[in-house]
Amino acid sequence: MTLGAAAQRQKDRVALGAAALSAIAAALVWMLWVVPIAASVERAEPQPIGTSVTVELDGGQAAGIWATGRAAWLGTAECLVVGPDGSELPLTAGPSLNWEDTLWWITPRAGFEQILRFTSTSSGTYEVRCADGLDTYDGEFLVAGDTFGAGAIGLGRGGSSDFPIGAILAFCAVVLPLFSVLIVPVIALRRLRDRRRSGRLN
Question: Which of 16, 30, 67, 199 is the right S-S partner for 141, CB 3.0 to 4.6 Å?
């Protein structure tokens, strides 16, 4: 075996190892993030825009406000969350890359997408109200799992670029399975090509 062939086999082993790790990571992302959130959307009861809904949350639990209809699509839906003590909770929007960009096809309720997130301050009942800011468009909303996530992870050289956790998970949920599946046939095809080329030379 030539030094070049040995080096290539070593690269193949590294690539296969990376594919195995990607498969494991993908399985964890789907089992711990994608599937539970999709199930929470399916369990939630949609309410018409212009009404309110109450949900029971544990302290520090994140929740997502999902919506559909013209009010949501045109960005005129406005929501308010009131905690057990009567205080209003802050709401945050999602990252530029999110569940809707990569996992819309797994959402059990067609047309629903997360528009806001909030975190409970204590255990108790929370009232979520959503209305159309223009009082013109209709739609529905529900409260389910949060896909946006809180915080970011520093990537790139020296961790100088911060990527939101929700964006990383939405990316990994699709890319990692594809990478783990495609790397094996790619290596097999390259080896087949190398054998044919070696046969012609001999």
Answer: 67
